[in-house]
Amino acid sequence: MKRPLRLPRANYPAGVATAIWLVIVALPLYIMVSATLQTRENYLNEGPLSLPTEPTFDSYRRVLESDFPTYLLNTTIVTASCALIVMVLGVMISYTIVRNRGRVSQRFFQVFLLGLAIPAQAVIVPIYLIITELNLYDSLLAVILPTAAFSLPVSVLILVGTMRDIDEEMYESMALDGAGQARMLLQMVVPISRAGISTVGVFTALNAWNNFLFPLILTQSRENRVLTLGLYDYVGEFRVDIPALLAAVVLSIVPIFVAYLLARRQLISGLMGVGGK
Length: 277
Prior knowledge:
Structural class: mainly alpha
CATH class of the largest domain: Mainly Alpha
Helix content: over 70%
Radius of gyration: 24 Å
Largest sheet: none
CATH architecture of the largest domain: Orthogonal Bundle
Order of helices and strands: HHHHHHHHHHHHH
Distance between the termini: 49 Å
Shape: globular
CATH topology of the largest domain: MetI-like fold
């Protein structure tokens, strides 16, 4: 006689906790998006939780007609450059650390890990002096170089853990085929470590896109301003254009959010391999 199937018992506390978490996450998004569809006067009169009675895209129009496209282009250049620099250097440094297991290589790896304990705020004055001496102040390169440098330690940690999972027999088989180190790196290590490299790229892109300290200290002119500084355009001494400000926030979120959606699987799988063997 077959036993009747037992349905799993409902977990009401988990359901309530999920509903509360959904409200916590959804409410700020609702306030942000609904505010962008209102006029400034309507937003101030009705409040942030009100529904837009007469939706309008005037806030987006004002944002796109301002210097926002320039800020978006500058941020894209900084983000793409930082991601490219960190991925290229991170792959080469990590491959060297994994393949050379001597004392010098391990000390080199430990020095990189020390970078995880150094906050950018603690060394912003030396960075400013170095950038000034190199005549790079108020340029996009002044933002790109330190941003990439501070993303390298965690990137090397992720890539070293990923590359250590590659079997030694694969290296030996390629060596028997006459492959050199460059060929092993390009034809075997890079394809196998694609998840870790994608993780490094997304992580660096997120840091560069949301970076505020380096653009604030190392740039000055409007033509070299990035999105995080460009939001100040909608905040005046005696007034704040909240709908336009939130419209600029929404437009600045979309590109990096799309990039995250496209690489989310590689990001998760790459982070799972941080521990290595």
